[in-house]
Specification:
4 copies of one chain form a homotetramer.
Chain A: E1 2-7, H1 11-22, E2 26-33, H2 38-45, E3 52-54, H3 60-65, H4 74-80, E4 83-86, H5 92-102, E5 106-109, E6 120-122, H6 124-131, E7 136-139, H7 142-158, E8 160-170, E9 186-187, H8 193-201, E10 206-214, E11 220-228, H9 234-242, E12 247-250, H10 259-268, E13 279-282, E14 287-289, E15 292-299, H11 306-316, H12 323-334
Helix pairs in contact in A: 1-11, 6-11, 7-8, 11-12
Chain lengths: 342, 342, 342, 342
């Protein structure tokens, strides 16, 4: 049993912890945070299903005042695990890395950290083999993770030469008050980092893109114009996506009208926290543009990176040294692709 | 075991079904809807935990085409139950009533129907006794249900003479595409129906109010100015609310910054669908206005009426002929007030 | 002096009237609407700078009760003009056409009408010559009008073979309460009508696209991937756009962060109603995608079609039978391209 | 002719400058800002109708690079005027005060500064006389300014003892990207500063209130429960408001459905920048609550404080030492109350 700890119990950290808890071949030793946030208070109200560690020495009294039991410090947690998932705020991971290195532990960082924090920039489907037995991995961000799933899917089928993406980015998560946008679309300098990151992971693809922020909280939408090595039509494109356990093909006629429909559907499915691990492709969005194929995907930003993080644990700790076996184990424990059996 | 059916499997109907399924002294016989909506498709993807009935004869093929098993018609469902919860669109309930009456079944209608559809306009805490053994009950709407909880709470402690309310109404539910508002506040003709409805249920209170629609999806916020028979201060007010199993007292310092924090917290608690049954009162909002007391409550519109609907089943079927016993059973099965034991 | 009337005094109709009033070689005879809307009440509060006609016989008393002077009926207005600009709700224009035909008048319809209502589907820059001396013209919708400006600009410089567009559509205008979207992105069936319309006007271009609705009110944003006959780089692309009097090149460093910045800028310029006739291209958005060029434009939906409507009057009435002269006259009277002289 | 300068050419500063320019008995000497913001660029595109001064020595090159002519420094501007309107960011005004004091000039600060910056906390209608001949005045913030207009109006008619207010606050201005809120209502600690500020200006009134932030940009909405010394009914209340030149009584039936309708109406009126100086009261919102009167007002946050700032210049410089004369001059030059003649 691989022992895993989680540093940072925020939007991503909570879901990483839940994800690890679902992997029957992993043990979640505990989670760490710096103060009694709402997420930590919810953990307490649930009866402390996960042990909590204090990531900021000196804050013990804050936890005590809130009546929240603490099992030790982050440094103590690190010593008990084989690998840490670091989901702290951007920049903190680089600092935490010193602790991980001190005890010679492996660690996985999230998209907010600089690439230089890690030995490899990782994506479960696109470059699993590069993560094998590495000490420090960095995962792609939510948009890039989802985008690569779709592009890699086509790439393995017919080869992808080029992609031009338009990211319609949700600007905050539900419950965020520290950031937001009101009645405005915001344009970012092109090319977007997601396109550049895709090229780092998939260097044989020419990628560029533009990102526009929108004042919503449920799911990024990415429009992709892909130039494939062999021209494919709508039906072929959909057949490729339909086989992928981390991609759900949906349609307007079923009632999936946009990102908010997918959020509602995940809640109605009874998914924990109303989350969705899979990206969605709209059947109705797939169109041919000359020899290119164009389509739209939905990225459920809160949970989309969880599967690839589980893959990363598998690769880094050599639980599975074969990509197919690694991602299959993750998919199995997270229930990904269950809908394909319908 | 009281046998219950649910007509209309939308936002409210799904939650009514879940609520009934949690009542160990009730049996959920099935749910009915008119077409394979997203909610129905989610039911199927979950493996049909509830039997589904077709509420619109002629639509059998629609369900069949979507691969959704149907157990019969709404009329057949009605014959198998003791009582129906009708959560269909406004106006449909009045039509369905003919079926309920034909088979001499009891039924509970939601806030969207006209008062005349029922024998009594019902609220679990405020007038439980009036619902006992009645055939047709109508529940208060989400805002009124939550508002009455708070006003009734103070009324039982010190007596309430008058309330002036300002409802900051969320305009859509998460996932709604059939209604919405963009960058606008919308004023409604005063007095709001919620104030009038409160007076119907609590005729000894003088109530008026103004409603303003806001472009958000998580939780109405109501500001209440209450004139009590005996002047109360902030500490007393909070102590009354803190005892109530369907009211949660929260504070800004804990991280509850607004309606979206409560939504996030419910998700982080692992509540099914990320729902919350209880209203919230902000500790920081309670202020004295001369002899009046003023405060702000949050109404989680999707699930707030579920407890009072369970109460209504208990009253209408005489499962409990005593209010205290009736609401306590509901609270117990729904886990309401668990947080009070902390 | 060409005599012009405007039917429908809503968001577009008001701006058409203002636009005609600015053309020194045209005379605005009057505007018509069916009831004392807010726009009509504003006209009255301004002292009736335009004569108002009643477009719905029977509604005279409505206007009288609101104290609004009426100069006659729509049919009477039609008889006094050379050409009508019809900006009524979709479908009404087709009905009004009978009146225009009865008096053998010319008329220009807006994007909401079916193409079959007109003899030619018109865009000032792209096919001016097709509108010359025609009786009935239909203008492209706001998104298509702005999009064609940009694509036609590149087409005339280097030739455009193909465009793949992603439209991030604002869902309502400021002040709209009859439509809206709240915290949701909405995907439409592809290809979008704007791509199809572009091909109707510019049949030599292969166009497709995807449209996503966003809950904002200021300006559509369109991402364009254009395949040109001759590869062009960023600097060349910008130099082409910078010469165009109906395109404004802006940058993030100047403070133009998104569609709302442009709306604010138009207000700060003192433009009537805070309007902007020109589309904007973000300098920072232009990137090469292999041999294609990619960029983002802003479409100020309330006013963008006004210049092309003025062009349409000029073409239909043969005021200028030469495109260059026609659009130059419009640009001059509307002050378009003034910023180029800086 | 009183000579006026404006420091800070942002949302408020631009409108103060426009307001001064409209006062025929004042001369706008110039405006000052620290860098070539969008507002400054718009000033340049308009041909520099106002002289611009550099408020941050060292930034001359920034202006030069943007091609914007500068007439000197803020300190030079101060020496040329009788009085400065300071609309800089909160806290900067206190620093600028040193310059104003150095040259013994008068100055008027905005709501963002601390009360201690000024000799008197000023509101044109409520305490004009206190501002007469004072050197430093501080104006109330936008919400408080509008609120006091309404409360003072009733107070002068029948006496106001107590108000309990609920502020539904717009969270950003159109065009703001530095702040915003997405799909969330945010509760603030009560009592709100607006209630406290009202009591500072009107010490005989007991005021408290709660503020909730909403994700919109057009106009705050305030719900007021007022306890008057003499009970008044709806008709009387409206008759008082209808006489006030800075209050517009509107109704749903006219088409004023909310704050966005008022914004649209101001644009359609042709008001510069689409601004509105007056607050609005909804006829449909006025209801009696026992002996209290309850109603809803709209606060157009961008321009509402301009009239009271003009009043402040008049009082501080003793242009008019009588309130009635002072506010009448302001109203006349700004066109306030014109609609009353209808």
């Amino acid at each position: 049993m691989i022992k895993v700890g989680v540093a940072g119990y925020g939007v991503i950290g909570q879901r990483l912890a839940d994800g690890v808890a679902l992997q029957k071949d992993m043990e979640l030793v505990g989670v760490a945070d710096v103060s009694p946030t709402l997420a930590v208070r919810a953990l307490k109200e649930k009866g402390m299903p996960y042990n909590l560690y204090n990531a900021l020495p000196g804050n013990e009294t804050l936890f005590a005042e809130a009546g929240i039991p603490v099992s030790g410090t982050l440094e103590e947690l690190v010593q008990k695990v084989d690998i840490m998932l670091d989901a702290t705020s951007a920049g903190v991971g680089a600092k935490n890395k010193e602790i991980y290195a001190k005890y010679n532990k492996k660690a996985i960082f999230q998209g907010g950290e600089k690439n230089s924090v890690a030995d490899v920039f990782f994506h479960g489907y696109a470059n699993y083999e590069k993560g094998i037995d590495k000490q420090f991995l960095k995962l792609t961000s939510c948009n890039t993770t989802g985008l690569i799933r779709a592009v890699d899917c086509l790439d393995r089928e017919v080869g992808v030469e080029k992609v031009a993406i338009t990211i319609i980015r949700r600007v905050a998560d539900p419950g965020d008050y520290h950031r937001g946008l009101t009645n405005a679309l915001q344009v970012e300098k092109a090319p977007s980092h997601q396109a550049l990151d895709l090229m780092t992971i998939m260097p044989h693809v020419n990628a560029t893109g533009i990102l526009v922020h929108t004042p919503v909280t449920h799911g990024h939408i990415i429009s992709v114009v892909a130039t494939t090595k062999k021209k494919i039509n709508k039906a072929e494109t959909l057949s490729f996506f339909r086989k992928h356990p981390r991609i759900r093909v949906v349609s307007l006629s079923e009632g999936f009208l946009g990102n908010a429909s997918l959020f509602r559907y995940a809640r109605d499915l009874g998914n924990p926290r109303g989350d969705m691990y899979e990206i969605a492709v709209w059947e109705d969005s797939v169109v041919e543009s000359g020899n290119d194929i164009m389509f739209v995907i939905n990225i459920p930003q809160e949970a989309v990176v969880i599967p690839e993080n589980m893959d990363a644990i598998r690769a880094a700790t050599s639980m599975q040294t074969d990509k197919a076996a690694g991602v299959a184990a993750t998919n199995n424990y997270l229930g990904l692709g269950k809908w394909l059996k319908k």
